[in-house]
Amino acid sequence: MFKGLYTVATGMIAQQRKTEIITNNMANANTPGFKADQSTIRSFPDMLLSAVGNTNIPVDKKINAPFIQEIGAVNTGIYLQETLANHAQGSLIETNKTTDIALIDGLFPIDEESGNSGAIFFRLEHPDGGEAYTRNGNFTLDPEGYLVNGNGYYVLSDTGERIIVPNDNFVVSGDGTVSVDDVEVATLGVSFSLNPALLVKQDNGLFQTVDGTNLASAFNQEGVTFGFKQNFLEGSNVDSAKSMTDLLTAYRAFEANQKVLQAYDKSMEKAVNEIGRV
C-alpha cells in the first residue's frame, strides 16, 4: 500500500518538473538564440521480491529446510534523469539592424560518444573571467564603441580581443570579417563544442564550460563549416505547437497520478475507520 504511494509521488514530481521545463521553453519562444530544453524521464531500477521461510520435510526427524521463493519485480517509480538543450538552429529573422548578426550552421563532426552533432557559438568575455558563449546575436555598441551583447558582455574577435568600431555603420561579411569603410577591423570570434551537452546553460541564453576552460576556435577546425548573416537574428528553436502538446500530455499524466493517489487515500481511510472498528 505505502509502496504505491511512493511510486505515485515520484510520477507526480517528475511530471511537475517536466511541466516547468516546457513552460520555460514556451515563455522563450520569441527570445533570439534561445535553445529549447529537452527532458528525459526514466524509471528507477526494479527490485526483485522474494519470500524467505522454512518448510518441514516429512521424515522421521522432522527436518526444517529454508527456502527462497521469487515473487516478482516491483517498480519503484520514475525520475527526471537529465535536461539537455536542443542545439538545432532556429529560423532567421530579418531586423535590418547592422548590430544584429546571425550564425549560420554548416557541417559539424559527430561526437562518437554521444552520437550528437557539434555546435558553434559567439565568443563573449565573461566579467568573472574566461569566456561565455551564446547564439543570440542581438548586439549593441556601448558608449566607448565596443560591440557588446544584451548583458554588456564584450563580443570577442577570433584572436580573443574586444571588437571596437567608430559607429554602427560597419559591415560583417559571410566569413565574419568586420569592416569599416572597406577597412578590415576584426573577425567575429566563434567557438566550437564537439559535445555541447557538456556545456552549462545559464540565464539570458548564455553557456559556459563545466570547468571554466575556453572552447576551441571554430575557425580552421576540420569538418566545421559555418557563416554569418548581418541584419538578421537567429530565432528561438522552440516548437510552440509541439510544446503545447507536450504540456497537455504532462498535465494529463500528473492528473492520472493524482487520481491514483486519491484512490490510495480512500483505501487507507476505509482501513482505519471501518476495518479498525471490527
From TrEMBL:
Signal peptide: none annotated. Keywords: Bacterial flagellum. It comes from the Bacteria. Residues 5-35 form the Flagellar basal body rod protein N-terminal domain. Its main location: other. InterPro entries: Flag_bb_rod_N, Flagellar_basal_body_rod_CS, Flagellar_FlgE/F/G, Flg_bb/hook_C_dom, FlgE/F/G-like, LlgE_F_G-like_D1. Residues 229-273 form the Flagellar basal-body/hook protein C-terminal domain. One of its GO terms (cellular component) is bacterial-type flagellum basal body. Residues 118-180 form the Flagellar hook protein FlgE/F/G-like D1 domain. NCBIfam families: FlgEFG_subfam. Belongs to the flagella basal body rod proteins family. This is Uncharacterized protein. It comes from Ureibacillus manganicus DSM 26584.
